[in-house]
Amino acid sequence: APKEMIFVIDRSGSQRGLPLQKAKETMSYILDNMNPEDTFNVVCFSRNVDQLFEKPRKKSDEMVKKAKGYIGSLTGSGGTWMGPAVETVCAQPAEGNRLRIITFMTDGYVGNDFAILGLVKKLRGKSRWFPFGTGNSVNRFLLDNMAKLGGGEVDYVLLNSPGEKVASKFYNRISTPVLTDVKVEFEGIELEEVFPREVSDLWAQKPLYFHARYKKAGKGKVYLKGFFAGKPYQQELDITLPETEKSNEVTGPVWARAKVDMLMNNDLFSAQRGSVNKELREEIILTALEHHIMTQYTSFVAVEETIITVGGKPRKVAVPVEMPEGVSREGVFGEKDNKGGKQFGAGPGQRRMARGGGGRSGGKSAELAKKKPDSPMEAPPPRPSENAEEPPEEEKPDETKPLTPEEKQKLLVEKRKLLVNQRTHKSLIGLAEKVAKEGKDGSLKLDKLEVSSGKVMVNIYLADNSEEVLKKIKELGIEILFEATTRKIIIASVPVDKLEDLVQLKAVKWVEPSSE
pTM higher than 0.70 for the full model? Predict the structure, then answer.
């Protein structure tokens, strides 16, 4: 059957370069492979919304040539005003009985996710939405739910993926639904709270999931109904619901997630404003607490903490975690590193959190806490990279001319200073001198760290945590308070006058103040 293809492309600043190029390659492939009777249009947006034609045009060599020229001229700049683009796309009804396919190409970097989803749900009519996320770090929450509420499927592509291969896969998926007007019926078994309540079409290479609860074991049948190639279709499946099945305990949280998604989708505009009605919010919270899942109003955080003894007194500290490879501190925390942006975890005062499941293990303290309805979820912070680059080697002097003792000493001093700047958090650099000048009896309290009796508590990230390395650290008069079992990280009490000596050790990658 003829389709109406609407290509929506994000040309904001975050799409500049390879992401926009991947979107162009995909659209070009689809334009070439559309059916002769299909119609299409191209809509682009950043600060403003623009479209190629006033209304969709039938495919022809001339129209395809115009579209490719228009697409080729697009550049990435400006902000991401997605709402007006959604409204523009939905403003014109599809011609006749054509199936309207909305191909929405974006990284999803907006701040009003729920408002955008509310618009899609409210305005889409019978159109099918296929978000296309381009990049190595896109807003999957927005794109996944846009597909779910839009009756389509989502696809993602890494920046190094071959453009034609991705385009072919994407077009093959959206070209024809396998099963439309899907319905599911049950016989002989008693189910409650079946999700999703509104079933989307079944598309190629994508399974169809249903989640439900039952209170009574038994045997029955499931009937899957719909239309296949325009003709009625029905499939009958036998089902057995056991009295107990411990191996399937994971399905509980999966069902709970489906229920929470349904509840959140009831009023997306209120969710955006943080004003979801009390009864709905309480039901979401109760479901989340019962099944240990994270929602907008509950956060399940595994905060790895440990108790250490400092000066004879117990003290609780957060165990540092590591940043994903390729993620810079500056990009995440908005501060420059001492030298070239080392890739390490949160600085002092930053709360280190990781999303996780229930239970306690390895010294982890798992907390499940209610959040205020208008409080944004706190994102899990980045972690230091295991593959952080080592400091560059010093440029070797001209070996044809022997160095004088003074030159050798100068090189050693410069190398020492270089390692201090590259491996030490800026708040620790020059700390010994500051304590000597401003401290009292070797103690000094600063904004984000405290020196007591000439010692400061720090996190030490290591390339090697062998016994030999730990022995060398201890020989500097450093007391190791905690050693992580799964990562090369230790928490230690370090004399401030030994901080520079510490970072001269080859195995030391980074030193930062420890936080409680």
Answer: no
Distance (Å) of CA 300 to CA 259, 358, 365, 370: 17, 8, 11, 9
Residue 226 · residue 183 · CB < 8 Å: yes
Instruction: Return d(Cα 148, Cα 143) in angstroms, integer.
Output: 9
Average pLDDT over residues 30-47: 88
- pLDDT of the residue at 300: 52
**Cα–Cα distance between 500 and 456 in angstroms, integer?**
13
pLDDT reported for residue 399:
53
Residue 284 C-beta-side C-alpha neighbours within 13 Å = 25
CA atoms of 319 and 515, how far apart (whole Å): 8
pLDDT in tens, 467-510: 999 999 999 999 998 887 767 888 999 999 999 999 999 999 99
How far from each other are the two terminal CA atoms of the chain, in whole angstroms? 63
Report the distance separating Cα 242 and Cα 1, nearest Å. 44
Could you tell me where the DSSP H helices lie in 107-187?
A: 113-123, 140-150, 163-175
Sign of the CA dihedral with 472 first, then 477, 478, and 481 last: positive
